[in-house]
Amino acid sequence: MKTTTYLASKPRYEILDGLRGVAAMIVVAFHLFETYSAGPTHQILNHGYLAVDFFFVLSGFVIGYAYDDRWNRMTTWGFFKRRLVRLHPMIIAGTLIGAGLFYFGDAPMFELVMQTAWWKMLLIALLGCLMLPTPPSMDIRGWSEINSLNGASWSLMWEYIANIFYALFVRRFSKLMLGIFVAFSALLTIDITFNIDTFGLLEARSYAKYTVIGGFGLSPDQLYIGISRLLYPFFAGLLISRIGKLIKVKAGFWWCSLLITIILVIPHIGGEDHLWIDGAYNALAILFLFPLIVAMGAGSSVTGNKSVPICKFLGEISYPLYITHYPLIYVQMNWAARHPDAPLGTHICIAVAIFLFAIAIAYACLKLYDEPVREWLKHRFLMNSPKNK
Question: What is the pTM of this model?
Answer without folding.
Answer: 0.95
